[in-house]
TrEMBL record:
Keywords: ATP-binding, Cell membrane, Membrane, Nucleotide-binding. Gene3D superfamilies: P-loop containing nucleotide triphosphate hydrolases (3.40.50.300). This is Fe-S cluster assembly ATP-binding protein. Residues 10-254 form the ABC transporter domain. Pfam families: ABC_tran. It comes from Nitrosospira briensis. NCBIfam families: sufC (TIGR01978). Belongs to the ABC transporter superfamily. Ycf16 family. InterPro entries: AAA+_ATPase, ABC_transporter-like_ATP-bd, ABC_transporter-like_CS, FeS-cluster_ATPase_SufC, P-loop_NTPase. GO terms for molecular function: ATP binding; ATP hydrolysis activity. It comes from the Bacteria. SMART domains: AAA.
Amino acid sequence: MIHQDSRKLLEIRGLRATVSGIEILKGIDLTVRSGEIHAIMGTNGSGKSTLAKVLAGHNAYTVTAGSVVFEGNDLLGLEPEERARAGVFLAFQYPIEIPGVSNSHFLRLAYNTVQAQRGKDELDPLEFEDFVREKMKLLDMNPDFLDRGVNEGFSGGEKKRNEILQMALLEPRLAILDETDSGLDIDALRIVTTGVNKLATRDNAIILVTHYQRMLNYIVPDYVHVMQGGRIIKTGGKELALDLETRGYDWVGAERRSAIGA
């Protein structure tokens, strides 16, 4: 939801990036303000997930041009862990398993690291146990998950809930959800999106990366952006996602080619 007093959190200008020498992002321009939800849609290979990973600082990608300013600071000059401490959060499309590291220990370390960065008190194990159990209620998660290895043996839906649990604990200024709806059945999608909606405030912003409109039945975006060929080629409101659901993506590219030809 857009608020009258919203201010810029993220400003991307002319962003270009390569992976293994191949240019994927070919000039991205995007402004995200506090209180906003942006959906980035497109077919496979359009550059959506690359954009998410570049913003998070994935070292497989090389930025060749452009700028990214987050809360007035150069985001590209920060290491991935510095971006996380600054308030940038990425929920992965394919969360990895970390055997031997308990979920509780992992979550508490992440939480206390961010708390220290913000000059706030850290929580000891007992305090954190009470705190995280309250957050787990947002996602209908069984407390037993705290004693298991990070994502170890989790179903796809459980992994995605664990990602949003991290978001609930870290309270990022900018949350980037990379195809969080991928692999979720209807019930899991409803639980995850309900949790995300509860975490959206006038002081943060969310970027949703998705192929399909179904996630947007639950999380209503302020803006929908269509990516194709490493660029954002069309921006609209939530109605644009409905058009994409019924008409596919080809018409957007055709419309753009016609406009350029004109």
